[in-house]
Amino acid sequence: xxxxxxxxxITKFLVEIYNREELKxxxxxxxxxxxxxxxxxxxHTASTVHRLLEIGKYEDSSIxxxxxxxxxxYADIVIIDEASMMDTYxxxxxxxxVQKGTRLVIIGDINQLPxxxxxxxxxxxxxxxxxxxxxxx
Length: 137
Fold this sequence. Notes:
Blueprint: H1 7-20, E1 25-29, H2 32-42, E2 46-48, H3 49-53, H4 63-68, E3 77-80, H5 88-97, E4 103-106, H6 121-124
Parallel strand pairs: 1-2, 1-3, 3-4
């Protein structure tokens, strides 16, 4: 989704719908600034992805150790905002942590500057079977 296409508005409405249904919603973004912004817009507390996963920065531990120590995320819905800023490792950690039956909503802009880490992870989701993709213009 491109800049100005309503990603934040869509997120706000999703949170409102899920809250009405009394579902447990977790919202996270790759940076503290992005998490604060989505919290302000939705009225729902958001955290950084690292905090949601309960991991430190990659430099604090080996990538393999982090992968083995991933804590499960118990929620009905997990919304990841600004996902295009995330690298492949972070997306992999999220997918691994989300429990069976949990809906994972990943929102981002494929035309945004690529993540600092390895590979453009959000573009890869378009190639996975059983993943629904929605694009706005």
